[in-house]
Amino acid sequence: MLIEHRGQRPVVPASAYVAPTAVLCGAVTLGERARVLHGAVLTAEDGEVRTGADVVIMENALVRGRRRHPALIGNAVLIGPHAHVTGARIEDEVFVATGASAFPGAVAGAGSELRINSVLQVNSVLPPGMVVPIGWIAAGAPEAQLFAPGQHDELWEVQRELDFPGTVYGVPRGTSMRDIMARQADYFGAHAEDRVLDDPSAG
Description:
The protein is an alpha/beta fold. It is built from 3 helices and 23 strands.
């Protein structure tokens, strides 16, 4: 399904494939021979989503672009089922496995791997060729450190400087959830004006 959002329409080249149950919303541009499989959602909120060539975005994955953090996917990238890429840059030949997450401002360097259920934290930089093991967390810049799931205290020492609330929600740490969610409700309320495009080849 192709949806116009904020006056922007998805662009899908003739060589690409978008499954009937996938959703492309707003300023989404697919590269040549891109494949977007069933249930995947590529949504350009107030920023773009752009993929390179030979990209496969598998079932039920989410790729979200934001104004300050577009989602930029390089060439020959696999984004696995249930993966979550929001406002991150994924460089060429990166493997993003099932359930992996990359958050706003993050960069996954060329040839790197985010293995099953791993996390690349906000504003963190995964060097080219680096592997984040199953369930681990990569955090930090200019070069991410790797943390096992049980290393909460060590991770927090790095993570708190990455400014998750400022990056993701645009608010200082300590802002109440009531205030954050009021802002989020307004932000996502922009979808009320979306328009489903009748012509699936429109772009």
